[in-house]
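#structure-requests
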Amino acid sequence: MIKLIRIEPSDNVAVALAPVQAGETLDVGGISITAAESVPQGHKIALQNIPAGAPVIKYGCPIALARQAIPAGTWVHTHNAGTALTENSGCVYHHEAFRLPSVPARTFQGYRRSDHRAGVRNEIWVLPTVGCVNPIAEELVRRNQDLVRGSIDGLYAFTHPYGCSQLGDDLAQTEKLLAALAHHPNAGGVLILSLGCENLTRARFVKALGCFDEERIRFLSCQDVEDEFEAGAKILQELAATAAEQQRETISASELIVGMKCGGSDGLSGITANPAVGRFSDLLVALGGSTILTEVPEMFGAESILFPRCENETVFRKAVKMTDDFKQYFVSHGQTVYENPSPGNKAGGITTLEDKSCGCVQKGGSAQITDVLGYAEPVIKNGLNLLSGPGNDLVSTTDLVAAGAQLIVFTTGRGTPFGAPVPTVKISTNTELYKKKNEWIDFNAGSIAEGKETCEEAAGRLLDFTLDIADGRKTKNELNGYRGIAIFKDGITL
C-alpha cells in the first residue's frame, strides 16, 4: 500500500495516506524519506529541510510558513507551521481553460413544474415566516403524514428563529431565502405559515415571491383563523391533491443543479473526496448541467487556484469582490480572516486556512466559472457557479438549496449526520469513516487512498450514484429524517 502522496511535484511536504511510524523509511515520487517521528493519517511530513520563515508547499501552493526550521522527515503541523494569510488577496487575472471530458448524454426521472424547472423530489413543505409559529408548523406536519402517498415523497417543516425583530439586511436576507425555498422545484406544494403580526408580513413576502403558481404556494396566517390546525390541514390536503398529479418523467441531466460542500474535513479531503467531486463536477458540466461552489472563507488563500478559471474578467472581478467583501465582514466584526480550521479539521491533519482552502476548492474541478452569485441568488447560467455564503454547514447548504440545487454532494473526513432540505449525499474521505458511520455516509471515496480506484473512476461512480438519487433513491439523511435550514444573520436582534 502507498503510504505517502506528493500531490504536486513542487510540494515540499507529502501527506500520509496511512499512519507512518517513527523510523519508517518510505519512497515518495523518487524521494526516500525516513520519518523522524510518527505521522498520523492525513497529516504532512517534510520531504526536505524547510528553513524558518519559508513556505510550506502543498497542492503546488504555499499553505503555511515554517515557524521554525523543519528538518526533512519531520511531522508538519500547527506546532511548527502557521498561516501567512492577510486581508489582501492581491489576485491578478490570468485566464486558464481546460478541456472537459466527453460524456454521453444522460437523463434522470424528475418532476416538471409549472415554471418549467425540474425537481428530483415531489414533497410538500411548510415554511414559517416567523419563529413564533415553528411548533404549529411541526405539529401540522406530524398530524398530516397520511398525505404522503403515491407520488408525494414527503411532508416537512423547515423551522427557523427569524422573520421578526430583524432590521435592514437581515430581514431582507430572511425574506429572500424563504422566497427562494418556496420556489424550489423539489416542492410540489408549499404552505407559507405566518403568525400575522411579524415584520415579514404576507404582503412583503408576496412581493418577494414575484410571479408564483397559486395552486402550488398557499398562505395561512394563524391569527386570522379560529383553529389553525383545521385550516392548515385543509390547505395541506389541497396542496397534496395538486402535487399528487405530478409524475416522474425523463429529463436531461443538463437540467440538474448540484451543490458542493465539505464539512468535518481532514487531511485526505483534498486528496480523495474533494478531487473526486471536482471530476464529478466536470462530468456534469460537460453534460450541460450546473454545479455550485460556496464556502467563501474557504476560498481564502486558494484564489490563485480557482479564480484564473473565471470565463472572463467580469466574472473574475465579481469573484474577487465576493472574497474581499467576506474578508471585510470578518474585519468589521473585529475578527481575523484566518480563524479557521476547526479543532476537528486540525485533528484530521489540516494546519491552516490556506491548507483547508486549497483542499476545499478541489471540489470545483477544472471547468470554467460562468457566474458569481450573491446570497440565495438563483443559478441562471449553466456551468460552475460560485455562491456567496459562509463555511457553516447548515447555513451554506441552505444557501445552495436557495440557489436552486436539487441535491447536494457533501464530503467529510470526520462525519456528520445533518441534512439539507434536499437530498444530501455524504461522501467519506476515508474508508474507516465509511465503515464506522455507515448510517450517515452514502458514498466512500477512501478507496482512492487505498489505490483501489482513481479520482476519475470515483467521479464516474458518483455521477451514476447522484443520477440514481435524482431518480428517487433515498440518501441516508432522508432515510434518517435529518433535515433542516439555517439563515445567515449579521445584524442586531430587536
